[in-house]
């Protein structure tokens, strides 16, 4: 049985000891993991914390504004880094999933490292949770925030890392969020991967292709909200397919919709969504996004697939 | 109102006049269109007909045997051409949908032309139907058997072509099949495209990739047979996605399942298949085909998509 009060109490003490007389950065993406981490650090060391939100250009619609507003409302001092162009530059020409993840990770840590250097802070808090650690160790994916596990020495980036949530699964993280008094739009937030929409564009990541998947994601989220699922999202394929727009043959884009139930992201089941909802999603995606001619639904559980495509 | 008796009577006479004292080849793929055409020609000119089945290596499992057996049972003299290696050779390195269609079409007509030359026959019957003509004219796709429409002069291949079904839609073709006394496994046959499984492998067509989609197609057909739909099939993506097999992360293949209702293939609706059946299809495809980690279902009507992906 998870004792959330004890966990919070111990964490505050651990963070206090780790930080000592130093200052600390918490990279906050707006997800439940990194926001809970950020709030824990704030409660522990107060003004020694600087929250950093890196706008990598890969976030969902309205997300940067949401994160900044949320952190402001929590009274957390926050720095916004606009790194959109830098991130798109590193993706240029890369189509391999693992190379894209690696490019994201390196750019993320370089950007964070630059902020740390400018601010003269070398302590970092990260929202790694247990599912990330397990999957990195098992080789399912390389989480960008599990550095030591994959043989990256954080020292080469010039900082020391604390991961207060690394022994928790997602439902426990949500309990901590409640315990900390966070609003429901944080504590009940759908999981969203670190590399964001870059994982949901198969093939090369460009501003145009991110914009297509961003619009599809918004449609899926709007229509699937009522389903209360663990996760729901859209993926843009690199493959194209024939379709008909305005009576003409076109060779257009394919979007896959993924809606899953899960407790901890370690296993997941594809939700059997009523066709009425799927048909509306499909009609909106092919109707509102001119380049998309085909909309697919992912039937696969995890295993044998993963939740994300990359 | 379609008068099937009059149609058959007129067709037999037209074919008789067209063939005259010559001999004629009918290229039969085993589909309802080309089989009905072949049987009409036989009823019209008897022994002047030579049916040709080209095994291009792109057919469904058991299909070549089925076609030969069917034509034998109908008492039609048939020549089997094994051209598997030649067809795979022309696909090598081609990933563009229209280039693949063109490569198929050219190899098909060259092969047929070779047989015609060897047999010294320069009359050919083909199973073109009205939907093929309409779609070629509208530019939806270039049907491999609508030569004149796309500016190919059949004369350069050295033969004259008759297309007895070119004014009929699919339901009328089935009525003709009944009128001719063809067995239900022909008259009620699901439509299957000329370029066969090559349209259902996005990206390069290789023997290995055709074998993957052939196995997936068999699973879809077995599980969807009870649904009595206009068409059902599997598509192999060129995109890959992450999955988990035997506890290990793999980068595996993606299969899309397409099941549609239609009258005439000019428009179509994605069937809202019960999830029990889709889950079984997905489990079998990812379980029985080791390289496949993900199974998707196509939600899109025609328009805005087409029935086939290429």
Defining traits:
homodimer, 310 residues, alpha/beta, five-stranded parallel sheet, four-stranded mixed sheet, 11 helices, 9 strands, 19% strand, globular
Q: What this model shows, in words?
A:
2 copies of one chain form a homodimer. Chain A is α/β, with parallel strands linked by helices and 310 residues long. Chain A contains 11 helices and 9 strands. In chain A, strands 3-2-1-4-5 form a 5-stranded parallel beta sheet, with helices on both faces. The longest helix of chain A is centred in the middle third of the chain and has 23 residues, at 97-119. Chain A is globular, with a radius of gyration of 20 Å. Residues 148-152 of chain A have low confidence and may be disordered. Chains A and B meet through β6, β7, α11 and β9 of A and β6, β7, α11 and β9 of B. β9 of chain A pairs antiparallel with β9 (292-298) of chain B.
Number of strands of chain A: 9
Give me the strand/helix succession of chain A.
Answer: HEHEHEHHEHHEHHHEEEHE
Give a short account of the largest sheet of chain A.
Answer: 5 strands, parallel
Largest interface: A-B, 46 and 46 residues
The oligomerization state is homodimer
Strand order of the largest sheet of chain A: 3-2-1-4-5
Whole-number mean pLDDT of chain A: 91
Work out the radius of gyration of chain A. Answer: 20 Å
Count of helix runs of chain A = 11
Strand content of chain A: 15-25%
Shape of chain A: globular
What structural class should be given to the helix and strand makeup of chain A?
Answer: alpha/beta
């Amino acid at each position: 049985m998870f004792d959330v009060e004890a966990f919070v109490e111990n964490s505050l003490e651990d963070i206090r000891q780790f930080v000592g007389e130093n200052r600390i950065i918490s990279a906050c993406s707006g997800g439940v993991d990194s926001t809970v981490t950020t709030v824990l650090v704030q409660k522990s060391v107060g003004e020694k914390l600087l929250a950093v939100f890196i706008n990598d250009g890969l976030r969902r619609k309205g997300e940067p504004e949401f994160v900044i507003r949320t952190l402001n409302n929590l009274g957390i001092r926050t720095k916004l880094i606009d790194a959109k162009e830098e991130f798109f530059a590193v993706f240029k020409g890369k189509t391999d999933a693992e190379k894209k993840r690696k490019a994201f990770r390196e750019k993320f840590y370089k950007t964070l490292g630059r902020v740390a250097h400018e601010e003269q802070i070398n302590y970092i808090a990260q929202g790694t949770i247990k599912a990330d650690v397990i999957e990195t160790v098992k080789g399912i994916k390389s989480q960008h925030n599990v550095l030591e596990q994959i043989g990256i020495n954080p020292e080469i980036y010039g900082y020391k890392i604390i991961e207060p949530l690394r022994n928790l699964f997602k439902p426990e993280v949500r309990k901590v969020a409640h315990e900390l008094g966070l609003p429901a739009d944080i504590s009940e937030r759908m999981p969203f991967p670190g590399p964001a929409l870059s994982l949901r564009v198969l093939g090369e990541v460009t501003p145009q292709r991110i914009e297509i998947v961003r619009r599809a994601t918004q449609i899926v989220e709007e229509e699937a909200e009522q389903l209360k699922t663990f996760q729901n999202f859209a993926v843009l394929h690199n493959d194209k397919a024939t379709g008909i727009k305005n009576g003409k043959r076109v060779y257009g884009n394919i979007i896959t919709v993924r809606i899953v139930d899960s407790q901890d992201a370690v296993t997941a089941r594809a939700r059997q969504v009523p066709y009425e909802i799927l048909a509306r999603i499909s009609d909106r995606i092919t109707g509102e996004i001119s380049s998309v001619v085909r909309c697919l639904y992912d039937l696969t559980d995890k295993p044998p697939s993963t939740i994300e495509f990359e």
